[in-house]
Amino acid sequence: MSVLPSDLPRLQTLVTYLRGELARTEQALAAAEEREAATARQQPAPEPPAWLVERGIGVGRLPVRLHTGECWATGKRCIPAAADQIRRLLAEGVPACIHCRPDTALGVLE
């Protein structure tokens, strides 16, 4: 048994009412999405990591260069690292970036 009316005039009225409710709901949704987008734009960008390890290409992706977090010479193959990890990798012979000099920033002597 259907809860909808069976006659044409009442069905047309119901469709008109529901279209209006749908339009109001879509407007409210668009406004909520805009508010959320505005809030996201106002939030500050996350802090860059202090240290980065640049990994090589291919199987194993071993560290090939070390950077500070603000280095302009980094790429997509960099991952965040802790200062003690950078010190350890420097001691193991992974080269420091010649532009940002993370070894100098950490006080590690060659």
Q: Could you give the topology of this structure?
A:
Layout (H helix, E strand, L loop, with lengths): L7 H35 L8 E5 L7 E6 L9 E4 L1 H9 L10 H5 L4
Antiparallel strand pairs: 1-2, 1-3
SSE string: HEEEHH
Rounded to an integer in angstroms, the radius of gyration calculated over CA atoms is 29 Å
Global shape? rod-shaped
The helicity comes to 40-55%
Alpha carbon gap, first and last residue: 85 Å
For the sheet with most strands, the description reads:
3 strands, antiparallel
Strand content: 5-15%
Structural class by SSE content:
alpha+beta
Strand order of the largest sheet: 2-1-3
**How many discrete domains?**
2
Q: Total number of β-strand segments?
A: 3
Unreliable spans are none
Work out the helix count.
Answer: 3
Mean pLDDT: 92
What does this structure look like?
By secondary structure, the protein is of the alpha+beta class. It has two domains: 1-43; 51-106, no CATH class. It is built from three helices and three strands; from the N terminus they run αβββαα. A three-stranded antiparallel sheet has the order 2-1-3. The longest helix is centred in the first third of the chain and has 35 residues, at 8-42. The N and C termini lie far apart (85 Å). The relative contact order is 0.12.
